[in-house]
């Protein structure tokens, strides 16, 4: 049995980034295992079923195979941290809307992001076509951020944290285009995350691929 919950993670994966971000800001400790997707460790594969990252295995063996499961797990472990109330509203209507934004990201935006990023693998349409499709999401996000600093008010919710790693990728496909785009509210919002200490030094800290007998990596590192 592990002393700490184990988080299988991959540094650049947007799903893993959002899980690590919530874990980091809530200060819930896990043992981080960096995974190379092309050579996943036997310990992850032998769990059976899906072997995507992030995945969390709690000390009692409970398994959380999706980034959102991990985010809610972290919130449930942070009972004494007042920050959890701004990340996840206690109001049912807001909870519903937070989930709707995450769904919109995961099931609509992500699909066009992948095509935009790898337009050469989807030659049916041009890179610009895929970018235009993704901009439908960006326009809505920007309009929302014109009214509030974050999606649900003046503090970040899990919707912001779940979405920003994907917008980061979209922006990076053609950084010059993004920098000159009209999405000024998104630029400010995104920079707030990317330039934060927690993102730069904790969430995106680099680790070598995990090996079974190595020393445990405590995350978030103090
Ligand atoms: N719905 C999953 C998606 C996770 C996912 O697709 N992760 C990618 C890396 S970014 C992955 O593990 N790909 C390799 C695989 O699926 O085996 C979540 O929210 O955690």
Automatic annotation (TrEMBL):
Q: Which InterPro entries match?
A: Glutathione-S-Trfase_C-like, Glutathione-S-Trfase_C_sf, Glutathione_S-Trfase, Glutathione_S-Trfase_N, GST_Omega/HSP26, Thioredoxin-like_sf
Annotated protein name in UniProt? Glutathione S-transferase
> Per its UniProt record, what PANTHER family does this chain match?
GLUTATHIONE S-TRANSFERASE OMEGA, PTHR43968
Which keywords, in A-to-Z order, does the entry hold? Answer: Transferase
**A Pfam short name:** GST_N_3
Source species of the chain: Marinomonas profundimaris
The molecular function terms of the Gene Ontology recorded here are: transferase activity
Q: Name one GO cellular component term.
A: cytoplasm
> For the GST C-terminal domain, which residue ranges apply?
91-216
